[in-house]
Amino acid sequence: MSNRFLTPNQKKIRKKNLAILITLVVLIIITFVISMNTGVIKLTPLEVFRTLFGQGDAQQQLILFEFRLPRIVLAVLVGISLAVSGAILQGISRNALADPGILGINAGAGLAVMLFVSFFSTTKAAPVYLLPVLAFIGSGLTAIVIYTLSYKRHEGITPMRLILTGIAVAAGISSMMIVLTLRLTPENYQFIATWLAGSIWGSNWKFVLSLLPWLIVLLPFVYSKSRVLNVLNLGELTAVGLGASIEKERRLLLAASVGLAGASVSVSGGIGFVGLVAPHLARQLVGAKHQFLLPAAALLGGLLVLMADTIGRSIFEPSEIPAGIVVAVLGAPYFLYLLAHLKE
Amino acid sequence: MATRAEGVEGLEKLQELQRRTHPVRALLALIIGLVSLVFAIGLSISFGAADISLSMVWQAVFKFLPDLTEHQIIREIRLPRVLGAALVGACFAVAGAMMQGMTRNPLADSGLLGLNAGAAFMLALCFAFFPGLPYMYLIMWSFVGAGLGVAIVYGIGSLSKGGLTPMRLVLAGAAVSALLGALGEGIALHYRIGQDLAFWYAGGVSGTKWSHLQILSPWILVAMIGALILSRSITLLSLGEEIAIGLGQRTNVIKVWGMIIVLILAGAAVSVVGAVGFVGLIVPHLTRYIVGHDYRWIISCSLVYGALLVVLADFIARNINPPYEAPIGALIAFIGVPFFLYLARKGGKEL
What we know:
The complex is a heterodimer of chains A (344) and B (351). Chain A is 76% helix and 0% strand. With 344 residues, chain A is mainly α. In chain A, α3 packs across α9 (226-233) and α4 (105-119) runs parallel beside α6 (159-181). The radius of gyration of chain A is 20 Å and the shape is globular. The longest helix of chain B has 35 residues, at 69-103. Chain B is globular, with a radius of gyration of 21 Å.
């Protein structure tokens, strides 16, 4: 979009939105520093900065670069991908309550990872890179199942039926997972239990590297489809009128959304509600245009998960509360609030 | 005050309903259900780690000899367990039937509406802050928790623009369950009582003792009698609020008593078995399909078939992969999920 065709008012909105995006980035950086500083061993902000620029002692370097930094980066990446995944789902289904967790896509990814862990070894070496792929397959299959089950001839897909089907499929998958947990060795059980609760468990650069390619490929693709999302958001008839081949675009975007959700589930378990809350907050801050909505949602998602992980790690020391639980405690009331204020 | 025209319309609806009720079929279903239940209980007692013949089961119950090991096993382990299963099933099913009738919501079920999660959350609190609390108090708190869960769900539902639609209730229930579940899980992780809770959740009815049954059965008995007394009014309520008022029902009184009974039943069941969903959804639907739309029959048949379902589920859970026990909630979800999908697909028009 070029600046030349904008009215003064639109220019003002643009400026405001850019300011909001910059504020979000600053907030993430602040949380980043705070999070670097929280943990059993305290480091002052100054020490954090000095270590970041290669001036710390060996112990400080070890703590920051091998333990805290990968975890922080992962939390932000997971938040980004879940939020964008939710924004896509809300856009293509025109359903304000859509979210990869509620729709059962997270559960599908979880089941795939769990099947792998219970029949093969744990997470050593190569499987780390395999996990996002498995999670993608699991969530993709689940998405297909949900899509097919909620599709009705003549009526197509109604948003509410989609969500109800998602809830039911998620319930079915989680009961399968409960059965599987009984067959696990204690060591694997511990791994799965922490993972399922939505913990950023892979405090390790390997996990960052396994997640990053997905984001690098999918995020630009989704952003390039911002206009399509805007059009889809207007409703089916308008979209057809404007010439978007909706079914094809919708499936492509759905696949991207599933990919993002699946990849992040593979390193963080079932963090729900991020995909719901972040796009909503973003919409209230920057409006419904996806050119701004997508980056704002991504930043908010990253901020949210990073904050949740930091809170879960620091407030309840020495025990850790998984980020997924913190997010659910914050996100569920917001969902209920939305439910109370939305028209059917 | 109801007008005369509303009264007439109500009577017509009532007659229509009576035409769609099948008393003979219902009585037959009730008898078959009872016989199957007795048989299933006998079967469940006799199969297990130590196989015991059915005649031995009969003797242990009616001609008890304390010296025989088999008799001891039956009396102390298997009998309380199977009775616990039957009670839990009956409670969930009757609670579900009442909720479906009162809210006219075909998707109502204590598991879906946040009741089970509320009770489970409260139990997590008890385990964390008052370890070793007597069973009696655990039950009381489990009732309070169930009430909390359902109050939030209904509160949200009725605050909404457009009112309490079935969809909204289910969504609110899912969110409240997620919230209370997360809180409970957080508490469990922080206080390191996760294993106790997990044991209690997955334990099914295996840990049921006579003392538990003794504490629970008076409550359940009173609540069941209350449910049967209310059942006629619930039938009228299921025709719609205005019609029920037109026929002279005090709907608010019925709803309050109905809710109290539902809370007692679901709270008691959760305190025994943990959060098991879908029993309250499936059983009332099946019985409604068989006996028609009179809640006197629906509730009494749900009682019997709910008990039968959970006794069978427990039986399968124990014997599918011995010596391990499959979690009973997961087994029931395997039946419940496709059923829920079917209902959601139909759009829940039929009630």
